Amino acid sequence: MFKRTAIAASLLAVTQAHAALYRVYEPTINSSIISNGQYTEAMGVAIEPSSYPSNSLGCFAGSATCSTDANLDQYKLAIQTLMYEDDGARYREEVPFAMDNAFQYIQSNSDYVSYCTTELGYNSDYCQAWANIRYDKVWAPEQSGAAQSSPTDYINAKVYVEGDSTNYNDNGNTVVNSLQGTNPIGNKSDYTQGVTKRNVAFNGSTSYSFSGLLSPTPDQSRAFYADGTYVAGSTSYQSNNDNGTYSYSKATIWDGSDAVAIPYDGGSTLSDNKFGEGSIRSFYRDTTNNKIYAVGYNTYANQYMDATIFTGSTDDITTASWTSTPVQDAQVDAGGSFTYSNSVLTGVNQNLVAIGNAKRSGSKPYDGAAANRMFLVSNVSANSPTASFFSGGIFFDGAGGRANAINNFDEIVGEVDAENVSEIGGTPRRQRAFIYPYAGTNSNAARRDIFDNKAWWLDDLTNGGTYSSANNAFRIIDATGINDQGIISATAIKCSASGGYSSTNDYATCNGSESTVAVKLIPIAGATKADIDPRDKSYPKTERKGGSVGWLGLSVLALIGLQRRRRT
């Protein structure tokens, strides 16, 4: 009896040591850079890239040490903080809400309400509260003369790179879009000495002016991705329409001595009061075939903004000629249906697989929502690249979300609707972070097998085993990056109570306070699909008691944008 019990206990200990696939780690934010009280939420926005591992399992390999206490900071996390729970007119977008290239929805509080009701479909009470945060607290003050003369009094967005003592927050709002090594790539405001530039592209300590590189010299710029040779994003040029002085933008790629602004394909600088817009969000240099494949969006006929593959005829921007190819079935006017208001590609990898999102028009809702539809392009070098929309499993019919990043193992991360309730006339659906191991032509079977060859909510992959109690303090609502070792940058709702949420149930209550925090999900060495223990998703019976806000409180927190609808 004793021997059997001892053996059983030993087996249980071994099993529990490797249960779950990820350890959740919340880095400490350096208070000398971002002082306590200077933000209301923190988000994980990018992860330090890794080399392609010789062992295809990366940090999942049995010999890996990524999830040990000594190595939790091995790959750095870029953290974004916000003073107010949204960024007004979106620092990361060339145009408001990624679609308003007439700049008509940002003139007043009522314009914000109008966008919310017509394009998102939420009810008027929710949209009024939505507008009060975005316009009254963020956009209107930022545009005032007081904000430009005293920018530090109006800074909403700041950044911090884990373990880095460098302060990248200078004279206005700063955002990070990716990391090149530990260098942040992004854009920041410059309101110094009368200069009023809302966005200036930067790479680490280097800000870009483009003087002498582009003519005319851009008024603004954004950087989204860099590979050590080139940086890519967009450059913007000041102009006027009936709504005021704003900007048209062009997809741009550059290095220290050259820059190329890619022209529109059928679109115009200004037509029918709408500016032309373009942007590169990521790229891959195919040195074997001497090409560059960049992805983002460009402007086409009737000023439509469509997901685009920019192909450089060589991998040298000084000699390359460029073509813009829209993604079929993700276009605004695909088949004359006008189902979408805009679309964009957000990432591409060495397998030439790209991911993106198409925003369903507010006039064409489906299954109760005018949501973002996530899609992939299996081969960006194809003559007619076509969108394959996510479906099946967690991607239920009509599910919205956002495909944010893809690594070279074809592992895709983002956020997805976690409930199938109607948003039309209601409020936003609750969302969860996901991982989707796509079975592409060149994907790795061993890595896909870890996930049992299907997509998961990341919360289901943090349950059980050695780290289960610590992991239970978090519910992961967004994933923004993934490197080839498998480490993920993410945002979570954290419960402050001892032991976290009241149970491991997906809908468990919190007997403490909840906050939005930046986290990394680090693969546990030796973890396999046998260690996956999905969280119970049944609604628990609860009593009305004070002090228990709970996970269901996210439906209220949605009012302040914690589910990142700020980017819809």
Describe what is shown at a glance:
The protein has 568 residues and is mainly beta. It has helices at residues 2-17, 109-120, 124-143, 145-149, 445-450, 468-471, 554-557; strands at 22-25, 41-47, 77-82, 157-161, 174-180, 183-190, 197-203, 206-207, 220-226, 231-241, 244-254, 259-261, 270-271, 274-275, 279-286, 291-300, 304-312, 322-326, 340-348, 354-360, 372-377, 388-389, 401-406, 411-417, 431-437, 456-457, 474-482, 488-495, 514-523.
Task: Tell me what the structure shows.
The protein is mainly beta and 568 residues long. 12% of the residues lie in helices and 33% in strands. It has seven helices and 29 strands. It has helices at residues 2-17, 109-120, 124-143, 145-149, 445-450, 468-471, 554-557; strands at residues 22-25, 41-47, 77-82, 157-161, 174-180, 183-190, 197-203, 206-207, 220-226, 231-241, 244-254, 259-261, 270-271, 274-275, 279-286, 291-300, 304-312, 322-326, 340-348, 354-360, 372-377, 388-389, 401-406, 411-417, 431-437, 456-457, 474-482, 488-495, 514-523. The strands form eight sheets. A four-stranded antiparallel β-sheet has the order 1-29-28-27. The chain has a four-stranded antiparallel β-sheet with strand order 5-6-7-8, with no helix packed on it. Helix 2 (109-120) packs across helix 3. Mean pLDDT is 91; it is low at 1-17 and 542-568.
